[in-house]
Amino acid sequence: MALFQNEAASVDIGIRLKELREQRNISMRALAAQSGLSANALSMIERGKTSPSVSTLYKLADALGISITAFFGVQSEKQQTIFLKSDERTRVSFSRGVFEGLGGEKFVGRVEPFVLTLESGANSGPHTMAHTGHEFVFCLRGELEYIVEKNVYHMSPGDSLLFAAQLKHKWKNPGHTVTNALVVLSGFAEGEKPHTMHWKKGGS
């Protein structure tokens, strides 16, 4: 059974990236310079020739000055109450995994829940991440390894992890099967882009 993999709408990340870039009148070359990526890599993503890694998505969101949830394509005014049927969630694919928004992109409050579906070997990228607020992780299926500072947490179904998100952290699926995890970011500073994880250059 593939948890959370139903008829949710999928977003074409290449098309969406081009829309966001053009809305801000940013050239591909300028976005490349701001994100630290090559213009060729951006072109490949926009033309659907390659899937970006998680770290690439975060770098692009940071360079564009948006939350990564903007890639979900939600343009409606934020609301105080959000109810989503299972087939109303939007998905954003990245290299070896999928984000599924659970309403935080539409909500007025300082909380953003999402589901991660990770293939074997999927990881958050080569750099650690840190941001304000708190991060809660609940492993639904498979195995998940979280590294918070120098502590390594091996998570199995039913295990949970809660930590101060300013601590440097990263994650990966070390197992041989698909992993599903619920992640909730909360308590972040007003005006901060919580999904833009301030990737630390040179982080491990």
- Under the CATH scheme, the architecture of the largest domain is Sandwich
Briefly note the CATH topology name of the largest domain. Answer: Jelly Rolls
CATH superfamily of the largest domain: Jelly Rolls
Q: Calculate the terminal CA-CA distance, rounded to whole Å.
A: 34 Å
Classify the beta-strand content into a percent band: 25-35%
Order of helices and strands: EHHHHEEEEEEEEE
Judged by helices, strands and strand pairing, the structural class is alpha+beta
C-alpha-based Rg, rounded: 16 Å
Mean pLDDT: 82
What ranges have pLDDT less than 50 throughout 5 or more consecutive residues?
Answer: 1-7, 194-204
User: What share of residues is helical?
Assistant: 10-25%
Number of helices: 4
Count of spatially separate domains: 2
Largest sheet, in brief, is: 7 strands, mixed
Order of adjacent strands in the largest pleated sheet: 1-2-3-4-10-5-8
**Number of DSSP E strands:** 10
Coarse shape: globular
